[in-house]
Fold:
Amino acid sequence: MLSDYDVIVVGGGHAGCEATAAAANMGLKVLLVTMNMNTIAQMSCNPAMGGVAKGQIVREIDAMGGYSGIVSDKTAVQFRMLNMSKGPAMWSPRVQSDRWLFAQEWRLMLEATKNVDFWQDTVVGILEEKGKVIGVKTSLGIEINSKAVILTNGTFLNGLIHIGDKNFGGGRAAERNSTGITEQLINLGFDHGRMKTGTPPRVDARSLDFSKMEEQKGDLKPSKFSFSNTEAIKKQLSCHITYTNPNTHDILREGLDRSPMFSGIIEGTGPRYCPSIEEKIERFSDRDRHQIFVEPEGWNTVEIYVNGFSTSLPLDVQLKAIKQIQGFENVKLFRPGYAIEYDYFPPTQLKHTLETKLIDNLYFAGQINGTTGYEEAGAQGLMAGINAALKIKEKEELVLQRDQAYIGVLIDDLITKGTKEPYRMFTSRAEYRILLRQDNADIRLTELSNNIGLASNERLAKVVEKQKQTDTLLEYLGNLSISPEEANPYLEKANTAPIKQKVKLYSLLSRPQISLNKLKDSADFESYDINLYDDEIVQQAEIRIKYQGYIEREKEMADKINRLEGIKIHSDFDYHKLKSLSSEAREKLSNIKPSSIGQASRISGVSPSDISVLLIHLGR
Structure:
C-alpha cells in the first residue's frame, strides 16, 4: 500500500504540476495522482505559452521558482514579444511550443525533483474528518493519507464532450471523465456550477496551401521566458494567418440548428474572450471575416492547430466550412473540434491562500476555480503548493498583493469577485500595470520566494547583481555630460530637437525618440561605457528613466490602498449586526468574508459608504 504524504496533488495538468513542484521543492513529501501518466502537463488546447498578461504570469511563475518558464524555453518552436509598439507595461512574451516535447520535459523535470512520487489512478473522493482533509480515496479503493490535498481537476469533473448532437463523457479527447468528487463536495456544503470551453479541429499540414496565407515569423532576436540559464531559441518555425469569409459563415449558419450551443444542449457558460467560431459569426454578424492563426504543433509533426476556429458543430459542417478558408481548400482533418462542459466551484469559497473555507487543508487550483488558460492554472497551482507547504510547516502564509504580481490580481479577483464565466487574465485587470511588467518579475518576486525556501540562493544572487548593474548604469548616465557636437548628429537621425549646450545623457534618454539600446549600437556612442552592459540591464535602465514618474505615482497609489489591506477583519465578523450597512453589502460581505478592509472595498455591491461604516465600527 502507498505510504502517507504531506501533500497529495490530484490532477497532472498545469496547475497540478506547478503545485507538485512547489511543495516538493519546499521539502515536503508529495504524491501526484493522475489518471494517465502519459498526459502529464498535456497542452489540451493551443500549443503555446504566454501572450498578453499571460506572458507576465509565466515570468512571475519562473521568478517564484516554478517550472513553466524553463519548460517553455526548452520546448519552444517560435518566440515573439507582443505589443512592442506600445509601452513596456504591455510587452508580453509568447512562445509557440512543441506539444509533445512540452509534456515530456515537464514529466522529466518532475521525475528529477526530490520528494515527488507518482500514482496513476482516479481520485473519487477526499477523506475528511471533523472539517479537515486527511487524504484521498481512489477508484481502486485505495485510501492514501496526507496532511493536505490540492484538487486540480481541470475539465475532468463530470466532463461532457459535445460534437453536434452527439455527446459523451470525457475530460479531454479520448480520455474519460472523473466522477464522485463533485457529489461529495456538494454534500459537504460547497456551491458548484457548470462551465464550457472548446477546441478547434486539428488538421494535416500536408493538405494546406501555405502560399495563400500570410507568414508570421518569430522575432529576429528572440528572447526567452526564464530568468535562469536557459538558452534563447536559435531556430524557429513560422506560423501563418488566413481568414474566414462569407462562404464560411453561410455554411456555419446553416448548421446552427444542429449546434449544441444554440439548441440548448450545452448549459455551461463559455469563455467570453475566446468564443467559438459559431458564436463569433452571431455576435459579430456585421463582420465578413475572422482571423485564423495556423499554428504548428511541433518540430517533427505535420499536425496543425487551427487557432480561431474553435467549434462544437457537427463534423460534416466543420469540414465543409473549413474548406472555404483560403489555403484550406483540400484540408484533411486529424480530429474535429469539440466543446466540453465540466463542473467548477465558485472561488469565493476559498481563502487567498486557495485553501477552502469549509474544509481545512483542502486547496483548489486551476479550472476547478472557474479560470481558463495554462498560465492562470499554473499560477494557482504554484500558490496552492506554496501555501499548503507553509501551513504544514506552521509558517506564515504567502499572499501576493495586487501591486506585487499579476498572480496577486488573478487570485484576488477570483476570491473577492468570483466568476460566472471562464476567467482569463488581461493587462486591463491590473491597476498597477507599469509596476507589474514582464521584465522586472524577478526583481519583484525572487526575494519573496527565496525567503520561503523555494527560489534558490543562486537565483537571488543573479537578481541582486542585475539590480546592482542597473543602478551603476543609471549613475553613469546621470553623471555623463554630452556636448552638442556629439549628440546632435544622432538627435537629427532620431528626428528630435538638437541641444545647444552640454546636458546629461540621462536627461536626453527621457525623450521618447531616444532609445538607449539603439544608442548602445550606434557608432556615434561606441566609445562610451554603455557597451559594457548587456541588453537586459540596458532595457531596465531605460524603462526606469522614461517611466520614473509613472512608476512613482503607481507606488504611491499602491501604498495608500495597501494601508486598507492592513486593517484586518476577523473571519467570524457578523455583518448582519451592522444595520447601517446596505442589505446588499451585508449579504455580499457575509458570503465572501473578506480578510481585510482592502478586500471588502473591491467586492461588487459594497459602496464607499459601507466601507466607512466598517472603518468606524473597527475604530478607524
